[in-house]
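Open question from group meeting: does this chain pack into something compact, or does most of it stay loose? Before anyone orders reagents, we agreed to write out a predicted structure and look at it together. Recording both the input and the output here so the notebook holds the full record.
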Amino acid sequence: MGPLATAARPRPARTPHPLPGTGFTLIELLVVLVVLGVAAALLAANLAGDDRDRAARETRRLAGALEHAAAAAQWRRETIGVSAEGERYRFWRRDDADRWVPLTDDDVLAPRTLPAGLSVAPLRYAGAPTAPDTVIPLRPSGRNEPYSLALAAPGWVFTLAADPLNRIATTAASL
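Structure tokens returned:
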């Protein structure tokens, strides 16, 4: 038989076999796993945030509320107070009997509970140390005594200090 006879004969069906060298090497798999691990660690760190960032965010929120309260005292022509007790702070107003009653008609000045691990406390009022249950008054005249509050997180303390013109300055210190 000549060359034509072999060409006419059907070839047997071949089962596919992987070619040598097609697939991932151990090194390639390890590189992919390391890249995925680093990406997961960065994502977890960014999602969880750290205590300093949470405390800084809450400090800015409280500073804005304090400035708003001082302005509201002038607009409303009434004394508004602020108290800071552990994990929460709240705003007050004086009633007709000269007692502090909770302020309830302003969303910015609504009572605020801090995230877990954060705490707030009054430090000073009119140059003197304050008791933890102090209500710091903000007068309708707009001229107030200097005061300060401390917002603490694990490893950090943020101080909010108000001057007589109700400007709030914040500072951060690591412990």
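Observations to bring back to the group:
The mean pLDDT is 88.
The chain has one domain: 51-174.
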